Amino acid sequence: MSQAPLRFVHAGDLHLERPLTGVSEIPAHLREAFLEAPYLAAEQIFETALTEGADALLLSGDVVHLDKAGPRAIVFLLEQFRRLADHNIAVYWAGGQIDPVDAWPPTATLPANVHRFPSGRVGNFEHQRGDKTIARVQGISRSPGQAVD
User: Fold this and answer.
1) pTM of the entire structure?
2) Taking all residues of the chain, what is their mean pLDDT, rounded to a whole number?
3) Which residues are CB-neighbours of 104 under 8 A, at least 6 positions away?
4) Is-contact 49 9, C-beta < 8 A?
5) Do 137 and 128 touch, CB atoms closer than 8 A?
6) For the residues 67-84, what does the mean pLDDT come to?
7) Mean pLDDT across the stretch 132-139?
8) Taking residues 128-137, what's their average pLDDT?
9) pLDDT of residue 147
């Protein structure tokens, strides 16, 4: 008996806090698109996980610098995580240089489908389909100012 394939979507370095740069002059009709680009690109990643029937989304750091992005980023990510939760899609998030595990505000409770890897040690999550473990997902979040060993 064969098992359905395991499908993950992987993304990192979303940097929601950074609008597009590198252009000396932005035409007026494109200014809004430049400002919205990080969110539109990130939304497409979440949409891909949904449309492709992914089992999980793997986020590998530098998703958002919350001090620079502000509340909008928190609300956006919570909405996207809940969309995935509604379709039983897990999120495994390894924090990077700008988004260490402890940077997420405790008042913005992450949905149960979001699993954060610890810093300083490898975290291990069992990914389940129904009541059966189909994969072990391991990772480590970066500690601020330190490289991952």
Assistant:
1) 0.91
2) 91
3) 66, 110, 116
4) yes
5) no
6) 96
7) 94
8) 92
9) 66
φ/ψ of 83, rounded to 5, equals -60, -45
Which of 115, 114, 18 is closest to 67 using CA atoms? 18
pLDDT digits 0-9 by tens, 36-45: 899 999 999 9
**The residue type at 49:** A
**Whether the predicted pLDDT of 149 surpasses 70:** no
119: its two tokens: 């810093």
DSSP string covering the chain: -PPPPP-EEEE----TT------S---GGGHHHHHHHHHHHHHHHHHHHHHTT-SEEEE-S-S--HHHH-HHHHHHHHHHHHHHHHTT-EEEE---SSS-GGGS-TTSPPPTTEEEPPBSS-EEEEEEETTEEEEEEEE-BPPTT----
CA separation for the pair 89, 40 (Å, rounded): 20
Q: What is the pLDDT of residue 81?
A: 98
CA atoms within 13 A on the CB side of 110: 18
